[in-house]
């Protein structure tokens, strides 16, 4: 049995308006992930972001970071594996992390609000490929979901987000009420916040590297956070804002 630590909510674009990836900045994110002892990162970039397609293709097709592909959906760079994913805003404003193969992600509608949760789940299921849906910061103002029965029916896990640690017990209680696993995601937009929250799961094999297929197949996971998570989130927000104001 091997324990894997994966930050399952990471952005590599500074904002939705960024059209071209900054590969040097992405290298800093990977370096911090390696220093933090993470096995992998799920690249849950906003699917409606201007640079979403160029980021994902640059990583997993063009191999701009100079890593090596392990199968179709795992890129290993600097000792850290990257998995393709996306963050979607549903029709009811709730955000979900979509974890599946790259082709499935690139085939999705990219406009915010294009899917209800049921429609998104149905589309992914009809493809016949493994997938996982994670509710992101679902108690955050403006992104809440009042239909808990729907969450329980279609969602695989509830994220306990790094940016909302004050409400962590509520997220845990929601997951328990719906009999769902929890995940920990940093929601990082800069290298500072990477690993502030992360997901832990066990795999039967000790095979390396950690792969997207292993992450997609597990239904048991738990959240973890760094002791100084609020400070990391605050520092990252200040740094990000300074970059956007340049």
Automatic annotation (TrEMBL):
Pfam families the record matches: PHP_C (PF13263)
Entry protein name: PHP domain-containing protein
UniProt organism field: Pseudomonas putida
Alphabetized InterPro entries for the sequence: Pol/histidinol_Pase-like
Organism domain of life: Bacteria
């Amino acid at each position: 049995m091997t324990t894997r630590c994966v930050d399952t909510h990471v952005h590599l674009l500074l904002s939705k308006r960024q059209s071209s990836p900054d590969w040097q900045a992405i290298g800093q994110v990977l370096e911090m992930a390696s220093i933090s002892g993470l096995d992998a990162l799920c690249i849950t970039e906003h699917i409606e972001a201007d640079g979403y397609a160029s980021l994902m293709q640059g990583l997993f097709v063009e191999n701009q970071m100079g890593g090596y592909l392990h199968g179709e959906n795992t890129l290993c760079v600097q000792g850290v594996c990257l998995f393709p994913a996306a963050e979607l805003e549903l029709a009811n404003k709730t955000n979900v992390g979509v974890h599946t193969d790259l082709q499935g992600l690139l085939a999705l509608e990219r406009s915010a609000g294009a899917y209800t949760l049921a429609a998104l789940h149905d589309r992914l299921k009809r493809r016949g490929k493994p997938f996982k849906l994670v509710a992101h910061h679902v108690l955050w103002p403006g992104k809440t979901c009042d239909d808990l029965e729907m969450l329980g029916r279609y969602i695989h896990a509830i994220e306990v987000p790094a940016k909302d640690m004050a409400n962590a017990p509520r997220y845990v209680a929601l997951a328990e009420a719906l009999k769902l696993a929890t995940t920990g995601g940093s929601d990082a937009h800069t290298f500072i916040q990477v690993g502030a929250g992360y997901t832990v799961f066990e795999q039967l094999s000790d095979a390396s590297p950690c792969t997207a297929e292993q992450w997609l197949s597990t239904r048991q996971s738990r959240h973890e956070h760094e002791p100084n998570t609020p400070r990391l989130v605050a520092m990252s927000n200040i740094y990000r804002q300074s970059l956007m104001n340049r």
